[in-house]
Every structure is written in C-alpha cells, then in structure tokens.
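Q&A log
Question type: sequence-to-structure
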Amino acid sequence: MPKYPLAAFSGGTLVNLLGESNFWDYVRKKWQIPDLHEKYMKGEISREELFGEYKFWQQRGLTKEVLEKAVREDLKLNEGAKEVFEELKKAGVTTAIISGSADILVKELRRLLNPKYVSYNEIVFDNKGLPFSTKPTHPTADIRMDKIAALRDFAERERRGMKECAVVVHQEEDRALCAVAGFSIAFNSLDEEITEAVDEVVKSDNMKDLLEFLL
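Response status: OK
Response body:
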C-alpha cells in the first residue's frame, strides 16, 4: 500500500501553453486580452466584476470551438507527465487534477493522462456560443482561490483522510492545499510563498523526478 494513496496535481504543473502554465494567461497572451485577475486576487474587484474580462473574449470571437481547437494545437505536456501518471497507477495510487483552469484545458488533460478525478472552472457560454461566466465544479469554493473542497471530495470518495493525500503544486493559489495534505511538492515553481509552504521543492526538466517522493 502506498504511503499516499491519492496524488493530486495542480494543472500548472503539467502543461506548457505557448510558454504559459496557466490557461487564463495563455488566452490573454494569445489574443491580447487585458488581465483583471490580479485585481481579483487582491480583493480589489468582485468575482462578478472579474467576469467583465469575458467582454474581450466575446469581441475576439472566442467560442468554445475556437478555444478547444487552440488548446489542442498549442498544448504541450511537461516532459515525463504521462510516465508519472502511469507509474502512480501501477503502484495503486489514485490520481487527480485539481485545477483553477477551464474545463476546455482540463478535459484535454483528462484525455491525455486519464486521472480518476478532475476539478476545474467550467466556462459558461450564451446562446450565441460566446463565453460570459464561469462555474466551478465544486461550488462551495472558487477553484482558483480555494482547492480544498475538491481534494476533500476526492479523498472522501476514496475513503481516505486528507493526510493520506499528496499534492503537487505550482503557484501561490495552491498554498491552501499544502496545509491540509499529508505531503506537498512544489514543481518548478518561481513563487517563494508556495516553495516555503511545501515539504519538498523539485526543479527539473522531467516530471519523473517527482516519483522518488510520491512512491
């Protein structure tokens, strides 16, 4: 029996989208959209005001089909990501992705990596096929701000305690997970707040270097 029978990965640890690990930053970069997220994170604007960014998405014609096609073309998994998920499953570890990214990206990650569980923010489209809002999979929490609800849900489904979970994280938004999980790793993070909050820091060109800590 593995020491940590459930391993959850932040979406930002797994991908490269034109040099970005964050789906929202990728969209802003690719289509030159103003960023309201920093103001939201600082509490300067509400979640409803954050949705004002979608007006720029609409102006650029970013339908679901356009976004899905772009992600398929631009997405690159980090080296070793598939091997890590395969080895964890062989060892009896349940895998999950707990991400503040959009369903469009996370569903593609699910297809490529086949984790048992995923959480994400679902982009809501209007009757013209244009985005106007976001709905988290775990409505007790804004997934971009607090991912604990998702980890607790997945642990309970597996009949595990939170201290039996390992998390692989990337940025400050993931810090809440580190406080409740049994073990935490920051993978290639440049965020000092998150690297100080985790049990281990791994800087590597290959995600397989995580396995010595997870298995």
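Response note: The first strand starts at residue 6 and ends at 9.
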